[in-house]
Amino acid sequence: MRSHRRMSSTMRRTCRRAIAVGLLCLGSLSGRAVAQGGGELRFCLRMEPKTFDPLRVEDEASAAIRYLTGGVLVRVNRQTQELEPELAQSWKVSKDGRTITFSLRSGISFSDGRPFSAQDVAYTMQQLMDPALHSATGDAFRSGTGNVETKVISPTQISITFPAPVAGLDRLFDQVAILSERSPGKEKAVLGPFMLADYKPGASVLLQRNPNYWKSDEQGRKLPYLAAIRLDIQANRDVEMLRFKRGELDVINSLDSEYFDKLEMTSPQLVHDAGPSLDSEQLWFNEVAKAPIPAYKKNWFRSANFRRAISEAINREDLSRVVYHGHAQPAVGPFSPTNQFWFNNKLKPQTYSPDAALKALKNDGFRLENGALKDKDGNEVVFSIITNAGSNTRERMAVLIQEDLQKIGIHVNVVTLDFPSLIERMTQTFDYEAIILGLTNVDLDPNGEMNVWLSSSENHQWNPQQKVPETAWEAEIDRLMRAQASSTDLKQRKEAFDRVQEIVVEEEPFIFLINKNALSAVSTTVHGAAPVILSPQTFWNAERLTVSAK
User: Fold this and answer.
1) From residue 170, how far is each of 4, 88, 123, 504 by CA, in Å?
2) pLDDT at position 550, please?
3) Regarding the domain delimited by 71-190, which CATH topology (the fold level of the hierarchy) does it fall under?
4) CATH number corresponding to 276-517
5) Using CA atoms, how far apart are residues 424 and 446, in angstroms rounded to an integer?
6) Tell me, what's the pLDDT at 59?
7) CB neighbours of 441 closer than 8 A, spacing ≥ 6?
8) 382 and 301 in contact (C-beta within 8 Å)?
9) How high is the pLDDT of residue 32?
10) Do the bridges between strand 83-85 and strand 372-374 make them parallel or antiparallel, or are there none, so unpaired?
11) CA 389 – CA 410 distance, rounded (Å)
12) What is the gyration radius of the CA atoms in the chain, in angstroms?
């Protein structure tokens, strides 16, 4: 699924505390060797995770923690992209696509020693699909209205039935970390390779080896090899790179192109370019009716002609060349061309044409006066773009867009905010005009984006949580997304999602800017790393990584 994911505004006290844990810089564990010789892995998260509750995950930092601690029934292998058994040793999806039956492994315990059974899977699904939870993960399963039914057949067998067919049903469970029904600290009892050991708000999160983890390697040695992983909260990319060069960090999971090029010049053995990724960066305008911005600006932002004109006036080739040093490509739409099957190859990159943009705006009543663009009522076109402080690439993109739009008489203010403040404006107060952020894909299937494209979703960022679709095109996207999600006919699904991509390009609720390459850095002290394009690029096989003493 993608993210900037849904940002829930109602969080329990434990979740608020988890928010502080956030974008931690998995950073400063001591380098001493451990009994199994696995060592301690250190790297950074660039923002505070919103939560430690795996069912509420909607941001990259929380997703990283979930990936490292959560036990899942099945796992998409990030390297082969094939679905592999985990807690479930086998599974079967019914012909109508509504029911999946899992056969579970026996003899597995949670990190607190309580046994794992089908009852825990039933409990997890009941919690996940509770509408009151507003789970981004749960949204991917919502192909129709109605309740999800679970049937515990035996301690090692369970069937889960959905009210409508769910396309790609089995792959969606890659994101569902199983909770313990009986453990008092449900979020702390985990089935993954690591467990939460310590949390210092605003500083670090320490994960330690789960002593009850069920896997062993081919020689019978218990996994994971690593004794611990430390995540340090560090939004500043300069500091992150400095610490990596000093040997204080072992991995940079997502490396900015500027740092990639500099590091490649001196230490080419440390950098990895896995090629074009599935991730995108985009700009969007605030279309929320209750947003505290002037009505005339809302009229601009709600106009597809205005949004298309802005898109035409942005030079994406410059963004790729200047900001990303060629380690990115102009974005075409919601999906990267790297996703070869689901990408609509009829779509072409937006042509940069400030003249065409200005002409379209003039046809809508806008006019140039002394170099300033004004709307039909004489209001000068001025707005602010906000993005997260510490992201040099987003800040530079915002400045280049500022320069591009100045050419057609639009004045743009660029504002950077710390990530919590940005999220508050984006999801709670709606006190913003435009935002530049990114979406991260963890799977190839469009079902992972239900929480973005459904108008009722909290991650429908330009205008979230609509009770009913406010525009005809959003209603059509809702229909198409539910249709593809409930069909077991791959051709029909492809046709439906092709049309979704076309509507998004026509209406431009998100102005997609670039698709960046999957760039990373890995220390020579880390053994077993094989960076990939799917998130998490460098630590997808964390249970088999080792770190040698420095």
Assistant:
1) 24, 11, 18, 27
2) 67
3) Dipeptide-binding Protein; domain 1 (3.90.76)
4) 3.10.105.10
5) 27
6) 87
7) 1, 2, 277, 278, 279, 336, 339, 448, 449, 534, 535
8) no
9) 35
10) unpaired
11) 23
12) 23
- Rounded-to-integer distance, Cα 435 and Cα 414, Å: 10
Residue 371: both structure tokens together: 């170099």
Going by C-alpha positions, the residue among 134, 122, 123 that lies closest to residue 58 is 134
* Residues in the chain, pLDDT under 50: 1-36
Residues of the chain with CATH 3.40.190.10: 1-68+192-250+523-550
CA atoms in the 13 A half-sphere facing the CB of 378: 0
Which residues partner with 104 through β-bridges? 88
Q: Residue 198's CB: how many other CB atoms inside 10 A?
A: 12
Chain position carrying tokens 């939460």: 196
Which tens digits make up the pLDDT trace of 272-328?
Answer: 999 889 889 999 999 999 999 999 999 999 999 999 999 999 999 999 999 999 999
9, 455 contact by CB (below 8 A): no
CA 328 to mean position of chain CA atoms: 18
Residue 412 dihedral angles phi and psi, to the nearest 5°? -115, 130
Domain with CATH 3.90.76.10 in the chain: 71-190
Which residues in the chain are classed under CATH 3.10.105.10? 276-517
Residue tagged 């009892």 (tokens):
189
* pLDDT tens sequence across 212-269: 999 999 999 999 999 999 999 998 889 999 999 999 999 999 998 889 999 999 999 9
State whether CATH 3.40.190.10 applies to domain 1-68+192-250+523-550: yes
Task: Please give the structure tokens belonging to residue 146.
Answer: 């109605």
Q: DSSP alpha helices (H): ranges in 36-187? A: 60-69, 118-128, 136-139, 169-172
pLDDT at 375: 97
What pLDDT score was predicted for residue 29?
A: 34
Can you tell me the distance from the alpha carbon of 291 to that of 37, in angstroms, rounded to the nearest whole number? 55
List C-alpha distances in Å: 187 to 111, 127, 180, 457: 11, 13, 8, 24
pLDDT the model gives residue 5? 36
Q: Two tokens at 268?
A: 């080419």
CA–CA separation, 245 and 224 (whole Å): 26
Q: Residue holding tokens 């790609």?
A: 168
Identify the pLDDT of residue 462.
97
* Secondary structure class of 173 (helix, strand, coil): helix
Give the Cα separation of 447 and 229 in Å (integer).
Answer: 31
Residues in the chain: 550
